[in-house]
Design goal:
The chain is mainly beta. 0% of the residues lie in helices and 58% in strands. It has no helices and 11 strands. Strands 2, 4, 5, 6, 9, 10 and 11 form a 7-stranded mixed beta sheet that branches. It has a 4-stranded antiparallel beta sheet with strand order 1-3-8-7, with no helix packed on it. The radius of gyration is 14 Å and the shape is elongated. The N and C termini lie far apart (40 Å).
């Protein structure tokens, strides 16, 4: 089974930066799209940024110009560089991967357990 493990969350002051990482592991799989989603307290989960295997990207309007998503296909890892952080960016950030598990012969639409980002002075 393909697993996703996030890292890099924490507490940062407004205007600061954080870099999130998410690594996928397992046997015989390929991932097309990897993405970051977030869920703030009392709100629904929302897409933050997504990137395909050919590096096509999509961002939420609220993070355009501040966040950058990238991936290392050889390492099955996706990154989210977050700059100019605002208190409203406070949330649990989840990694998502969509692809195919050739070992178990089934599609992948997996989620990590999440990493908390708190933006506060």
């Amino acid at each position: 089974q393909v697993q996703l493990v996030e890292s890099g969350g924490g507490l940062v002051q407004p205007g600061g930066s954080l870099r999130l990482s998410c690594a996928a592991s397992g046997r015989d799989f390929s991932i097309n799209t990897m993405g970051w989603y977030r869920q703030a307290s009392g709100k629904e989960r929302e897409m933050v940024a997504r990137i395909t295997s050919d590096s096509s990207t999509q961002y939420a309007d609220s993070v355009k110009g501040r966040f950058t998503i990238s991936r290392d296909n050889a390492k099955n890892t996706v990154y989210l560089q977050m700059n100019s952080l605002k208190p409203e960016d406070t949330a649990v950030y989840y990694c998502n991967a969509v692809g195919f598990d050739y070992y178990n012969l089934r599609g992948i639409d997996n989620w990590g357990k999440g990493t908390r980002v708190t933006v506060s002075s």
